[in-house]
Amino acid sequence: MNAMMNSESYPAWQGGTLDCLERRDETADSASFVLAAGTPVRFDFKPGQFVTIGVDTASGRQYRAYSISSSPSRPESLTITVKRVDGGLVSNHLLDHFHAGSQLETSAPAGSFCLDPADVPEKIVLLSAGSGITPMMSIVRWLRDCRSDVRIHFIHSARCEADFIFRDELLALAQQANFRLDLFLTQPEQTIACHTGRLTPERLDALLAEAGGNADKSRFFLCGSDAYMAMIEHWFAASGLPADALSKESFTPAELPPAETSGAVFQLTVPSFGKTAAIADGQTLLEIMEAEELPIIGACRSGVCGSCKCKVIEGEVERISTETLTPDDIAAGYALACSTRAHSDVMVELAV
Amino acid sequence: MFCVQCEHTIRTPQGVGCSFAQGMCGKTAEVSDLQDMLVHLLQAVSLYAQAARKVGIVDAEIDEYVPQAFFSTLTNVNFDPARIIAFSERAGALRNRLKSQYEAACKAQNMVPEKLPAAADYQLPSAKTVMLSDALQFALNRQKKEVGEDVIGLRLLCLYGLKGAAAYIEHARVLGQTDVEVAGKFHDVMAYLATDPTDMGQLFQTAMDIGTLNYRIMEMLDKGETDTFGHPEPTRVNMRPVKGKAILASGHDLHDLELILQQSAGKGINVYTHGEMLPAHAYPAFKKYPHLVGNYGTAWQNQQKEFKAFPGSIVMTSNCIINPDVGQYKSRIFTRSIVGWPGATHIEGSDFSAAIDAALAMPGFDKDEPPHYTTTGFAHKALMAAAPAVIDQVKAGNIKHFFLIGGCDGDKSSRSYYTDLAKAVPDDSLILTLACGKFRFNELEFGDINGIPRFLDVGQCNDSYSAIQLALALAEAFDCGVNELPLSLVLSWFEQKAIVVLLTLLSLGIKDIRVGPTAPGFLTPNLVKVLNEQFGLKLISTVEQDLKDILQAA
């Protein structure tokens, strides 16, 4: 409590360099990193939000967003939890090279997937799969610290017990009042109570009924893979629950550092497709080209693979990654749409 | 999604494979995951097909369907989620039918049905959302942590190799060539892979067995093609357009080309081959069609530019199709058989009138361009006929070396290696080529050695069968093994048919093959090392270095 009280008077963290105080290996392929600033600061965020971090990897400076797993009720440090992913440039770099004493660049916390402490419902259903558990942990930890009256129904899916991140803490919480844990393991080992297999819409209906119903009075938080989220969203819509009772966040990596934006809105045109669309200052070309359903391939979405190569005919752009482009390509106007931001009206053509 | 099957896959220092929202080919994560599920269901069918064979049930429809549907998951074949789901549904229905037949036969024969792996009875969910969540457990890199990268790599070598063989099975079937024993062996490998095997020795042996099986399949396909269309003979092909309305036939399916030629005859439409269809010009059966006027375009990766400029309709009979929206020609591209693109017209049955009408509605070429020729058609019969003359020239010291430079093309700039190599080989060498890799150098002039052309285009990728026949004949004439011949194979690869052709060459004991532009992403450094130790398989380096090594060793 001392730390909490003291930190109230400290300045709110606005981004910059953080030190790793501690590394906690959660599972064989995930770890939590407890981060703090060199001088006392207060990490002011809403449970569920993320920070964008930048690290120098073999492929240059890379940025990724990570959900915060700690609670703002303990604002003297900030914890992110990272899971190894196939081809995951930053996650794997952190797991392989990051330890107590390491440093990284971090943005201020952001994101709309969060529980607003000023608007807490009486019941919360948390639905997560795999590493989608990290923002849920922040929500759970905050509620336990500050609002133990709120009923929590935590439904988590993982492959096996060894992959269950935050296992011990959640199993302990499951013994408390107002907290129900339903765990789904596709490969259970029978040492902890769980459901076998995957969560399905039918099973979800049954669990919610068993937990006392009132789905219409609950707020739902959802985070997992695209397929998992699609399944739950489908169920949600089919159940006739109000759309604003569901908050969701996908793992899809948010790759770039927060944009320096003037708030200006420009036009992006693709003459050969007769398309013109608004693009905000600092927005990536790929975001708009995909929204306009232009046939562009965004495979890695982080400036590594080169699939979204396009040609800027006119306009001022900022190329954050030019990884696969030659100097001649760049001179000829080519850019990687996922890592190129507009800073004026731009005219673009697809690369063939 | 996780897909690492083509040469173009994402490679970063942290990992290999497309695993984000889209593959490098443009395949969405949704399609990729649905394809993983389709493969899982096809393996379920094969598990039952394998068991059913033991009680005397052989179902020709199933033997035909499994490789055909598997072919749809090959690179640049089918991007349409609805079609992939339909393939899965049919696989599920066929499995259910076979399962009942199998259980009834067991009962009639007083046998207890075999206990099959759980995968055999996987039921396809009805909602796509559930399919997609199920598909995650069928990801091809499943169990990577438990079994290690080398086992995953060997499983994928087998799965992708078998996928290439499936494509050739389907091409042979279209030409009336099927074989119960081949189908049985195909099911055996599918069923084996469904058990998530971990024995590296056994997996390695399976990869070699797939190579052996594919040799037989290529032989069947060769028979189908030559029985139906005659033996290819060296033929000059015009590589430039001629005036008039136009249809472009792409892919590998000669039977479709014939249907297009028959149905477009007398309508004032010229038919062009594209990519891997080029060798069709050499078959006698196609020479009777005066409106088969030439070849248009180059290898597949240039199609978005070339098809856009093509003033007619385009028929994709097999791979490779890439996004037709980029060049805005989706309304005039037609897919066949296992090929699919969402929103492009799919032609079922044998009526090509939609493609013909689309060609008639287009302006066509407005003038003749000055002709420019390439020669194709040096398949085994033509090569065998020339063999005595070739042998004489070798004995006289005028031909010192043979290079087979071929395989798939692709859009990496490092593939210029193959053009440079073809240009740099000594004047006393012959160059054999096959598949679409030839477009890197088939418009160059190579001249001849005392009447023997220095550049010999053998045909499509599956015509590596012909190249093997020539090598065997030369080895016999010189009374040595193939590996003792002054023959160097320098292959380019892109998709899974190249993988199975490589497995075939390795299973025949052919050594010191060079492969590029990069090693397959699924082969770990350990596996590349094993292939190097056992077969002398190497990656290409520079043209200078490789030529020096090749010619010194000879």
Assembly state here? Answer: heterodimer
Low-confidence stretches of chain B: none
Q: Architecture of the largest domain in chain A, CATH level 2?
A: 3-Layer(aba) Sandwich
Assign a percent range to the helix content of chain B. Answer: 40-55%
The largest beta-sheet of chain B arranges its strands as 6-5-4-7-8-9
- Rg over alpha carbons of chain B: 23 Å
Classification by helices and strands of chain A: alpha/beta
Q: Give the helix tally of chain A.
A: 8
Whole-number mean pLDDT of chain B: 96
Name the CATH homologous superfamily of the largest domain in chain A: Nucleotide-binding domain of ferredoxin-NADP reductase (FNR) module
Described by strand count, sense and barrel closure, the largest sheet of chain B is: 6 strands, parallel
Shape of chain A: globular
Which sheet architecture does the biggest sheet of chain A show?
6 strands, antiparallel
**Helicity of chain A, as a percent range:** 10-25%
Radius of gyration of chain A: 22 Å
Mean pLDDT of chain A: 87
Uncertain regions spanning at least 5 consecutive residues of chain A: 1-5, 252-258
How many strands in all of chain B? 18
The number of helices of chain B is: 18
Quick structural overview:
The complex is a heterodimer of chains A (352) and B (554). By secondary structure, chain A is an alpha/beta fold.
Structural description of this entry:
The complex is a heterodimer of chains A (352) and B (554). By secondary structure, chain A is α/β, with parallel strands linked by helices. Chain A has helices spanning 2-8, 89-97, 133-146, 167-173, 201-210, 226-238, 285-291, 327-331, and strands spanning 15-27, 30-36, 50-57, 60-67, 78-83, 103-107, 123-129, 151-160, 179-187, 195-196, 218-224, 246-250, 265-270, 275-280, 309-314, 317-319, 334-336, 340-342, 346-350. Chain A has 3 domains: 2-107, Elongation Factor Tu (Ef-tu), domain 3 (Beta Barrel); 123-250, Rossmann fold (3-Layer(aba) Sandwich), CATH 3.40.50.80; 265-349, Ubiquitin-like (UB roll). Chain A is built from 8 helices and 19 strands. Chain A has a 6-stranded antiparallel β-sheet with strand order 4-3-6-1-2-5, covered by helices on one side. Chain A has a 6-stranded parallel β-sheet with strand order 10-9-8-7-11-12, sandwiched between helices. A 5-stranded mixed β-sheet of chain A has the order 14-13-19-15-17. In chain A, strand 7, helix 3 and strand 8 (151-160) form a beta-alpha-beta unit. Chain A is globular, with a radius of gyration of 22 Å. Chain B is an alpha/beta fold. In chain B, the strands form 5 sheets. Chain B has a 6-stranded parallel β-sheet, covered by helices on one side. In chain B, strands 15-12-11-16-17-18 form a 6-stranded parallel β-sheet, sandwiched between helices. A two-stranded antiparallel sheet of chain B has the order 1-2. In chain B, helix 1 crosses helix 7 (180-193), helix 2 (60-71) runs antiparallel to helix 3 (81-108) and helix 8 (200-229) packs across helix 16. The longest helix of chain B has 30 residues, at 200-229. Chain B is globular and about 70 Å long. In chain B, 57% of the residues are buried. Chains A and B meet through helix 2 and helix 6 of A and strand 2, helix 4 and helix 11 of B.
